[in-house]
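Sanity check. The docking grid for flavin mononucleotide depends on where the pocket ends up, so I'm generating a full predicted complex first rather than guessing from homology. Inputs follow.
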Amino acid sequence: MSNPVMSVTLAGMELKNPVVVASGTFGFGREYGQFYDLSQLGGICVKGLTAQRREGNPPPRIAETPMGILNSVGLQNPGVDAFLATELPFLRQYDVKVIANISGNTPEEYGEMCEKLSAAGVDMIEVNISCPNVKAGGLAYGTRPELAAEVTRMAKTHAGKVPVMVKLSPNVTDITQIAQAVADAGADALSLINTLRGMRIDVNTRRPILKMNTGGMSGPAVLPVAVRMVWEVANAVSLPILGMGGVSDGDSAAQMMLAGATAVAVGTACFADPYAPIKVRDGLRDIAANQGLDRVAQLTGGVRPW
Ligand SMILES: Cc1cc2nc3c(=O)[nH]c(=O)nc-3n(C[C@H](O)[C@H](O)[C@H](O)COP(=O)(O)O)c2cc1C
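Predicted complex below; grid placement will be based on this.
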């Protein structure tokens, strides 16, 4: 048994441990802050921000699936200015890295938000080009390499010294093509995966369960897909990766890191258990200790493919 160092560095940003909470599953931290000290987390990815406030999509917009959920929330958020005025000061009470997740209707909108967020000193910007639940922008940028590259360039131009991480969609034929385009356009890091498009139907009414008909699937059921994609991307580009999709305990987090992730994000698992990110951190530490590692970072990329 060792006592492994838990800190990791993601694109120059030091996290006290590799566990981040995933955008859209942790709000701005206020509710979870009632359960434990948010400073225990490595980082917080805030709910997806847009240039103007958004109500999101009509309900029902969450449906359970075996070992997962479907959501069609559609980027409900107070807008970037309200975030800067009230939510960022709240988060700054804690010793935790703040990652601002953004979605734009146009590349210019991404640029404007990056300008404001970097001036306010967020620790990292996560550029969401992969939301399956909005009409404009969103997934359209994440499924076409040239558009993904354009948004990345725009974000980099306006983010100043703040590192830019681009969040990739699993709803593509070859995720490495998008990863390569985004890397060539200057991204500092990649995060993956966003949700997988899915659908449930009520057999009696013959209506889809979600008002938007389809939604994005997440939770433990998607872990093997996410691990496979992290592994493919890690082999294709040399950028650091924030791995997510189904991480719910130490074992799933360690799989992500062995596949090539520098750090992991915990999303849907927070809904079932608000303490999930803390348990993931402790589980990761136990695995690294049992394997006699000096640093948890030594897990990254350590898979031994047949
Ligand atoms: C209810 C809900 C809302 C989400 N909102 C966002 C969002 O605003 N921006 C974003 O980039 N990803 C969003 N996501 C995707 C998650 O950040 C994450 O990529 C995905 O859920 C996979 O991780 P998980 O299986 O641990 O939940 C959302 C996911 C859920 C379940």
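Relevant for the grid: Residues 276-290 form the longest helix (15 residues).
Also worth noting: The CA atoms of residues 62 and 291 lie 39 Å apart.
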